[in-house]
Amino acid sequence: MNVKTVNYKGLFFVNVTKPTDFEIKFLKNTYDFNPLNLEDYLTKTQIPKIENYIKYDLIVLRFPLFSEDVPQNSHQYGIPLSTATSHSKNKRLISSYVSFFISEEYVVILHDGILPQIERIFTYCQKSLHNRTEYMSQGAAFLTYRIIDALVDDCFPIINEITGIIDKIDKELEGKQSQKTLEEISTTRRNLVVFHTMVKPILPLFKELEEGKHKELNGAMQPFWSNVLDHLEKIWDRVEDNQELIEGISISNESLLSAHSNQIIKVLTIFSTILLPLTLLASIYGMNVNLPFSENPFTFWWITFIMFSATVTMLLLLKLKKWF
Known about the structure:
single chain, 8 strands, elongated
């Protein structure tokens, strides 16, 4: 059973990794959780939220990570991530849900086992009494805050990496464009949209916590939730800045591609225009019918002269119109 527990003076830190129906049944019977909350986690139909019940409070959050950072034996939405990422050339951002069930006696965390900070903190608390005192001595709400704060801080390396990718794309576009660069632009735009959809619904939840709208989670904890909100707002600002930057780069790239295509079309048009009268004249005198001067021995040279004159005339006309 994927349920591990650490106890400190009556406060239980329960770590539930990749829960199945068996773990869900155990939690329902042991802690009397609302079965709908547990079913929502299994079906991945949750949205970030804070709900208050008589016996516990529920916090549902969603955090980003790169698919290549996920362990090979992990699953997301029922699909092996190793299969999903093996064909991907660029880093793709995915999300992982975390549900916190919080009361005075316990903090129960349900997660997919792909967010390293949860396992790190749980293992840290397992190691010694000193570590448990550091994380668990101030109650369930404080333990929840420490875990959420670590998860939020893990978003900074991700946004830093996306910023670095955008800088790299910008430098590559100064030189020769490549298919790889175009793929990176597309993947980065997609990743920023995914990041945006994760951060946006979380911000109002922590504003509620900062304003003291959830009695059991507030009190002395309000300054701590304010700290998390401050970090989220910084992440939000950087996500929006990066979105604007990659959109500008994408528009500039499309303009360059359009200009390049127009140049190619212009060259082909010039060739077609020059060859048109020559093709017409060659077609006329290539027919198996008697045409004026067709028997004249100087006809070949006259036709050659006319074709050469037509070519020079077309070139001069195009030059006067500044086509090249």
